[in-house]
Design a protein that fits this description.
The complex is a heterotrimer. By secondary structure, chain A is α/β, with parallel strands linked by helices. Chain A contains 12 helices and 11 strands. Chain A is globular, with a radius of gyration of 20 Å. Classes of the chains: A alpha/beta, B mainly alpha, C mainly alpha. Chains in contact: A-B, A-C, B-C. Chain A binds chain C through residues 4, 9, 15, 41, 43-49, 51-52, 55-56, 59-61, 168-169, 171-172, 174-176, 178-181, 194-196, and chain C through 40, 45, 53, 56-57, 60-61, 64, 68-69, 73-74, 180, 183, 185-187, 250-251, 253, 257-264, 314, 316-318, 320, 322-323, 365, 369. The complex binds sodium ion (2 copies). One sodium ion (NA) binds next to helix 17 of chain C.
Chain lengths: 318, 210, 466
């Protein structure tokens, strides 16, 4: 019987949350459009560790997966351009459009092709901000000596502000804050809520916006090529609607909880002046970008071109 | 942990090979133990650095993750040599002589089959993180301070390969025991009878009575 | 054939291999490998031309597991806590503790066995690993019990059961691992284990005293120690308090200032303090070498089981067995308490065939959310909940129950790690002997678990104080 229904395995992690709503929606739409002939079977952590989802795609163990570029910069150097500090992206919609433009660049597609992966869509996240205990910093200078959990480009930004970035897995963050190992934590709002930092924090920075992480959803290129025309059309045509759904649900469900939660917990909001942000940005952004361009040009990527693509799009949207 | 499990020796070539391999295995196991000790020192440095020097050890978690494969894999053949990997001995405990060695032969062959596949699989895992053309040969690095992951990933196929050698040797020893019907083959962990046991026991106890 | 059927057949095959005497870690890994090959080949309709593809994908998928799963900060606690155990042994701490326990409490019926239980409980305050605790006490306590005429199987059983206390009384590697899997507050969980640990020790001691009263020729009480001798035994055992204090300082905040680190670091610092003591007591290279070799052996044995079981778990993930279980559980129409009891019974059965960590890794991702949902959700208030406790308290309570079940599994046949370890240290004892000797303690554990279910206060009182 050659008319077997097609089922793709999808490797996500954690549990169903704002961060996975586009994949859930995609599964729903694809099944609808093919009358159940093509389905996405989503697994939360059962198929792979999140840092190895790209390995699983390359092996062919599953057909679709989500991961974050910063988990393994060496595996996907091209898309880490989107994780550079202080790019100035200020909405999920903007993050989505710029990510898609980067994903469509031939050099980026070639980078991911090493893993037999084809970029499907981003999982846009808002800018990270810092929540902490103790005296709230009033100026950027107050970050001096502050122990903060921050990784990657955001860690470099915190370092430039004089803070001491410390690394640990997200799951140890809460305990480290309780025990004073770190005084502050940089996360996106949904992570501040799900990893419990809001339970201790007394202050939160509203506009530090040092950057974010980029977490694409990819498909196995062979599996994609094996789709029938109808199946491929069903998948491709659903991406945009899935992302619309993701962004509206992140904005309404997560961000609408965030504000009241801050009030309820009595967490004070720290807002820096534009001049201060500009000073910090000047200290961090240009050197980080220059280092990134140098390193990745050496690795054979058109790094300057990719960086310009991002920066020009941000400028055009302002 | 079957620490005193009995593995007989004689002057056969098989026994000499057993001892040659054991030297390598013991070295690997010691490395594993030293890695545990290093892990402890690392924590001491990290805590001291953070609390007294206001300078946390950069990439503390990354270093732990690098040390763990050393601890987890390096002693695997040593443990197999001494019969230290746990099992149900309900059936094998009741068997003697040829019947026993036939069962041991079958299960050891099964382990060898698995481990050959895993040498392949873990090697592929290593290979995906390794790239001759990349800086530090790295195509996958740790999250915080970007240590290349390929050395740690390479430990698995290396340790598993040594285990395969050990298994081949044990299979040969069991096979020979099945063919010759001998009761106490060399180079494999044996079920010990009570008398031998008592002798070993006296030894362990006296060595602890300072 | 449905993936679920493949899952069940492969699981049955694993049991056959285990019974045949194949080393457990490899039997689990083999089952996982065969299962993965089967699943991938089935996906291609068993086309012979696609077999090599299925083999390659399965092998590479399984090949990710060992490195991927062991390179984890959470699991780094296991070797550290084992090292504490062996260093304490070579520092003479364990012996000192046992001597003190003997002089103070061995006058009761079944005296030496009761003293062993309390010495293991005391040692549990520095040791975070059950198997290591059983391993060191097998060397110290069993010979003394044998000298005065205890049945050797029972003596082994006491040590195997006593070792399980190490995972309830803080510090505890397995409680930290639970906290990390379910993302709950580690500090509160560790605190919550304290009273149930003491409680378990008292139940064990009670059981031994009753047995000593009922059976003739049980171990005699050991009397005749003067008060002077009793107090003289204390200074040697006192350093253990220093280690306990060190670890407590790390994990909690008794003086209102910042604590110094995380539980992971606390364990390592504890090991370092014991290491210094052992050096002070005259440990030399030979003893140090033995300590780290023993640590390496036990660690590699445990890690081999961990990755072996996790290859099998990865296969179960592809077979979607956890999903099927979750659907089934949430479709039940029984009362929440009845479902909880069924879950605990299922743990008892599953735990017969698995080790504690493997079992938790396998089940918690599915069972924990289901239990939290039964109680009314993560954020439920005590008044609106099914079990009469808030969401976070339910997470702690269930954690202690699961860890107690997991510890129970360490002494139940056919796969009971503590019994294997005791039999391994004492070659005059077969694994069957130890399993026979430990049987009475099943009753004690059943009583303890029933009481912890009926009176959650035993678990929740201490963590609710902070
Ligand atoms: Na403990
Ligand atoms: Na068991």
């Amino acid at each position: 019987t050659e008319t077997m229904a097609k089922e793709w395995n999808v490797s996500l992690w954690g549990k169903r949350r704002a961060f996975t709503e586009h994949v859930e929606k995609l599964a729903e739409l694809v099944s609808e459009k093919t009358n159940g002939e093509f389905t996405l079977n989503i697994s939360y952590g059962g198929l792979s560790k999140n840092r190895e989802n790209l390995d699983g795609i390359s092996i062919g163990a599953f057909e679709m997966a989500q991961f974050c570029a910063g988990y393994h910069a060496d595996k996907n150097p091209s898309i880490t351009v989107l994780e550079l500090p202080f790019l100035g992206v200020n909405s999920l919609e903007m993050e989505r459009e710029i990510s898609m433009a980067v994903y469509n660049h031939p050099a980026v597609q070639g980078d991911l092709a090493r893993w037999n992966a084809k970029l499907l869509m981003p999982s846009p996240l808002p800018q990270y901000n810092v929540a902490g205990v103790g005296d709230a910093p009033k100026t950027v200078a107050d970050f001096d000596g502050l122990t903060v959990r921050a990784t990657g480009g955001i860690g470099r930004a915190m370092e430039a502000a004089g803070a001491v970035p410390t690394s640990m897995s997200a799951t140890e963050v809460r305990q480290s804050m309780d025990s004073g190992v770190v005084k502050a934590v940089a996360f996106a709002p949904h992570a501040h809520m799900s990893f419990g930092t809001v339970e201790n924090a007394t202050w939160w920075t509203t506009n530090l916006n040092p950057g974010t992480v980029n977490c694409p959803v990819v498909v196995n290129a062979d599996a994609y090529a094996d789709l029938t025309d109808a199946e491929r059309a069903a998948l491709d045509s659903s991406v945009s609607e899935a992302l619309d759904h993701y962004i509206s649900s992140y904005d309404t469900k997560t961000m609408s909880k965030w504000g009241p939660l801050l009030a309820e917990k009595g967490i004070s909001e720290v807002t820096f002046t534009d001049a201060e942000i500009e000073t910090l940005k000047a200290k961090v952004a240009a050197p980080a970008a220059a280092a990134w361009i140098e390193k990745n040009t050496a690795a054979g990527l058109p790094a300057q071109e990719l960086y310009d693509l991002v920066v020009d799009m941000v400028a055009a949207k302002k | 942990m079957a620490g005193s499990a009995l593995v007989l020796s004689d002057d056969s070539r098989l026994s000499r090979m057993d001892h040659a391999l054991l030297r390598l295995e013991t070295l690997f196991a010691l490395l594993s133990g030293l890695a545990v000790f290093a892990l402890m020192l690392l924590a001491v440095f990290s805590v001291a650095g953070r609390n007294f020097l206001n300078a946390p050890l950069p990439g503390y978690v990354d270093w732990i993750e690098q040390a763990m494969p050393l601890i987890a894999f390096m002693g695997i053949a040593y443990t197999q040599r001494n019969g230290g990997h746990i099992r149900m001995d309900m059936l094998v405990g009741a068997l003697r002589g040829r019947a026993l060695y036939i069962v041991e032969l079958i299960t050891t062959l099964a382990i060898l089959a698995l481990m050959i596949l895993l040498v392949w699989g873990t090697w592929a895992h290593f290979q995906r993180s390794f790239d001759f053309d990349a800086p530090l040969w790295s195509r996958d690095s740790s999250m915080d301070i970007a240590i290349p992951l390929w050395p740690a990933k390479l430990l698995a196929p290396v340790a598993f390969f040594v285990l395969c050698l050990r298994l081949v040797l044990q299979i040969y020893a069991y096979g020979r025991a099945v063919v010759t019907g001998q009761d106490n083959p060399v180079a494999v962990p044996l079920p010990i009878d009570a008398a031998t046991q008592a002798a070993l026991e006296a030894e362990t106890v006296s060595s602890r009575d300072e | 054939m449905e993936p679920i059927d493949i899952g069940l057949i492969v699981s049955a095959g694993m049991l056959v291999m285990v019974v045949l005497g194949m080393r457990v870690a490899f039997a689990a890994g083999m089952a996982g490998m065969v299962g993965l090959i089967w699943i991938f080949w089935a996906k291609k309709g068993y086309d012979p031309a696609d077999f090599s593809w299925a083999l390659g994908v399965a092998v590479k998928t399984a090949g990710q597991v060992p490195h991927s799963k062991v390179s984890s900060q959470a699991l780094s606690l296991i070797p550290t806590f084992i090292l504490i155990g062996y260093l304490a042994y070579y520092a003479g701490l364990t012996q000192a503790l046992f001597t003190a326990a003997k002089r103070w409490i061995a006058w009761v019926p079944g005296g030496l066995a009761v003293a062993t239980v309390f010495a293991t409980a005391g040692f549990a305050a520095v040791s975070g690993a059950s198997v290591a605790t059983s391993a060191v006490f097998a060397r110290i306590a069993i010979p003394e019990m044998l000298k005065i005429g205890y049945d050797k199987r029972f003596a082994a059983g006491v040590v195997a059961a006593g070792g399980t206390l190490a995972s309830l009384i803080p510090p505890s590697a397995i409680l930290v691992i639970y906290a990390i899997i379910v993302e709950q507050d580690v500090g509160k969980l560790l605190l919550a284990g304290f009273l149930p640990g003491i409680f378990s020790a008292i139940v064990y001691a009670g059981l031994i005293i009753v047995m000593a009263k009922v059976y003739k020729n049980f171990g005699p009480p050991v009397g005749g120690f003067t008060w002077k001798e009793r107090f003289a035994a204390l200074p040697a055992a006192a350093p253990i308090l220093i280690v306990v204090m060190t670890i407590v300082l790390f994990v909690y905040n008794p003086f209102g200032g910042d604590a110094w680190g995380t539980p992971t670091e606390g364990g390592a610092i504890g090991a370092f303090v014991v290491f210094l003591m052992a050096l002070y007591r005259g440990m030399r290279w030979g003893e140090f070498r033995s300590a780290i070799l023993e640590t390496a052996k036990l660690a590699v044995m445990i890690f081999t089981i961990i990755w072996g079981v996790l290859i099998y778990v990865r296969f179960l993930g592809f077979a979607d067995l956890p999903g099927a279980f979750s659907d089934w559980l949430t479709s039940l129409t029984l009362s929440p308490m009845l479902i909880l009891i069924c879950i605990l019974l299922a743990y008892a059965v599953l735990g017969m065939f698995m080790d504690a960590i493997g079992m938790m890794l396998l089940t918690l991702p599915v069972v924990y959310p289901a239990v939290m949902a039964l109680n009314g959700g993560e954020a439920v208030a005590a008044a609106d909940s099914a079990f009469g406790m808030s969401g976070p308290m339910c997470a702690i309570w269930f954690g202690i129950l699961v860890v107690k079940m997991a510890e129970f599994c360490l002494i139940t046949p056919p796969i009971g790690l503590n019994c294997f370890v005791v039999a391994g240290v004492r070659d005059d004892l077969s694994v069957q002997d130890v399993f026979k000797g430990v049987t009475p303690f099943f009753i004690a554990d059943a009583v303890t678990i029933a009481l912890l279910v009926a009176f959650p206060t035993i678990v929740l009182w201490l963590p609710s104080q902070v």
